[in-house]
Amino acid sequence: MTKLEKATHVFLIVLCCLAGGLLIEQRFFTAQDDDDSRTARDVVGRELKLPGADWQSAPISVLLQISSTCRFCNESMPFYRQLMAARQSAPAKVPVIVASADGVAVMRRHLEEQQVVVDRVLHSRLDAFAPITPTVYIVDSQGVVKRVFMGKLDAAGEKELLAIVERGKV
In order of start, what are the domains of the chain with their CATH numbers? Predict the structure, then answer.
């Protein structure tokens, strides 16, 4: 083996060790942001600025962050119909706003097909908040997020959200 071949082999071994070390460090010693509950806690208490949303119109508002192509959003449509019925029978009418990366016309048509009637549909990604659809935000009259429900809700989450809407407060 020539000196050049030996130097090449040593260089490749060192390079592989360095790359492996960097991968291990990134995997085990870097904070993971994939924890939904931590993300939800980070969102609560922050002001939600959403052009077109009138938070002052009621003590609390419900903001649904959904997509017409999201499987879990579509599977949740029966619950959203139930939520709309609950808010109609509640003493304090809680406004429901949909924020979607879909176009407004696309989302309105999708909601009509699913027979979900909301107060307002806005085009927005809300990237600074939850990266997950569906996400339900309970927002106070100052635009501050008071409660967050991320992902498809289980029976307990649905019951809790219905109770908040029926009471008209968190």
Answer: 36-167 (3.40.30.10)
What are the CA-CA distances from residue 136 to residues 3, 52, 96, 129, 164 (Å)? 65, 17, 10, 11, 12
Strands 96-100 and 145-150, bridge-based pairing: unpaired
- What is the rounded distance in angstroms from the CA atom of residue 95 to the CA atom of residue 25? 47
Q: Can you tell me the distance from the alpha carbon of 30 to that of 41, in angstroms, rounded to the nearest whole number?
A: 20
Distance from C-alpha of 89 to C-alpha of 93, rounded to nearest angstrom? 8
pLDDT in tens, 71-82: 999 999 999 999
Task: Report how far residue 116's alpha carbon sits from residue 136's, in angstroms, rounded to the nearest whole number.
Answer: 15
Per residue in 147-157, pLDDT (tens digit) is 999 889 999 99
Spatial separation of the C-alpha atoms in residues 6 and 122, rounded to whole Å = 63
pTM more than 0.85: no
- In angstroms, rounded to a whole number, what is the distance separating the alpha carbons of residues 140 and 167? 14
The backbone torsions φ and ψ at residue 64, rounded to the nearest 5 degrees and listed phi first, read -100, 120
How far is it, in rounded angstroms, from Cα 169 to Cα 166?
Answer: 8
